[in-house]
Write a structure and sequence with these properties.
The chain has about 170 residues and is mainly alpha-helical. The chain is globular and about 45 Å long. The model is unreliable at about 1-10 (pLDDT under 50). α1 runs antiparallel to α2. It has helices spanning about 15-45, 55-65, 70-95, 95-115, 125-130, 140-160. It is about 70% helix and about 0% strand. The chain is built from six helices and no strands. The chain has one domain (about 15-160). InterPro entries: HPP (IPR007065), TM_HPP (IPR058581).
């Protein structure tokens, strides 16, 4: 899928607007489906399936699916790694702005080191320091929620673009 802001070469202005509008509408539809599904899971199971950073994950997954940051390894790995770091720092150092900043910095460096960079996941340590959840947060919403988003992305792009995702 082309970037919503880029038109294929050789396309006139009106056609370019249609391509962008179509891409934008597809991205919105995908984001709606993914967030609605995890929201429905949360409502039906009374479990916390939704993580604040998942909205930004949907921007990448459905708006820029070819981006390295939008691939399953990055979505799942980035979310899990940063939540693990946030929980670890909260447990070891307690709440506070300094351990929160250190957790965010370490999470960023570890995503880069492990090649699992997913920018929305960079907010997970901050979310953890604000909410102060238990270790179960690592499983739900983090791991299971990220896996569900990746699965929805795969199903969505398989239907819409006939198997164009993941691209790496």
């Amino acid at each position: 899928m082309s970037s919503p802001s880029a038109a294929p070469s050789g396309v006139d202005g009106a056609s370019a607007r249609r391509v962008r509008t179509g891409s934008i509408m597809l991205a919105g539809l995908g984001a709606f489906a993914a967030v609605a599904f995890v929201g429905m899971l949360a409502a039906k199971t009374s479990q916390p399936w939704v993580l604040g950073s998942f909205g930004a994950t949907c921007v990448l997954l459905f708006g820029f699916p070819a981006s390295p940051f939008s691939q399953p390894r990055n979505i799942v790995g980035g979310h899990v790694l940063t939540s693990l770091v946030g929980l670890l720092f909260l447990q070891l150092f307690g709440p506070g702005w300094l351990p929160m900043a250190a957790a965010a910095a370490c999470a960023t460096m570890l995503m880069m080191l492990t090649r699992t960079v997913h920018p929305p996941a960079g907010s997970n340590p901050v979310i953890i320091f604000l909410a102060q959840p238990s270790w179960s947060f690592l499983l739900l919403p983090t791991l299971l929620g990220a896996c569900v988003l990746a699965l929805i992305g795969w199903l969505y792009w398989t239907i819409v673009k006939r198997g164009s995702w993941p691209s790496r």
